[in-house]
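Researcher: Here's my situation. A collaborator sent me these components and asked whether they could plausibly form a single complex. I don't have experimental data yet, so a predicted model of the whole assembly would be a useful starting point for our discussion.
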Amino acid sequence: MAVDPNTIDPKKTLADEEVAARLAAELPKWKLVDGWIRRTYRTSSWKGTLMVINTVGHLAEAAWHHPDLTASYAWVEVRLMSHDAKGITERDLQLAKKIEDVVGWQPGIEPESALEGTPRSDLRFAYIKYD
Ligand SMILES: C[C@H](O)[C@H](O)[C@H]1CNC2=NC(N)=NC(=O)C2=N1
């Protein structure tokens, strides 16, 4: 039977140069370092850090693809690779994109948004440090 060239193979690893090019085009804040695609989200406090971790946790569980996380008081690093394929696959890129979309969501700066977004005027509400 012929292989459909349009089907994504979840276990196919991408060459480093291809990963780097895809990140530059699609996920410019993510970098390939030591075999992982990674991104650090900075926050204003431990509570914000845990909110990011929980958000990533939900997305990973829904995807059934799980990043490694390293956290401190005001940052969390998200690191993705496909352990079973021993490399970077489309699964890593797709989950990274979802994380980037959801954690980076700022409805307050979107045109036509009915949502005001996290208030910036009051430090009590300081949360993710958008970069
Ligand atoms: C049994 C289960 O399907 C596997 O352990 C899945 C779950 N999450 C995973 N996450 C990641 N990052 N790589 C994997 O190979 C992987 N495998």
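Model: Some features of this prediction you could bring to your collaborator: The two ends are 48 Å apart (CA to CA). Residues 36-104+126-131 form a domain with the Gyrase A; domain 2 fold (CATH 3.30.1360.20).
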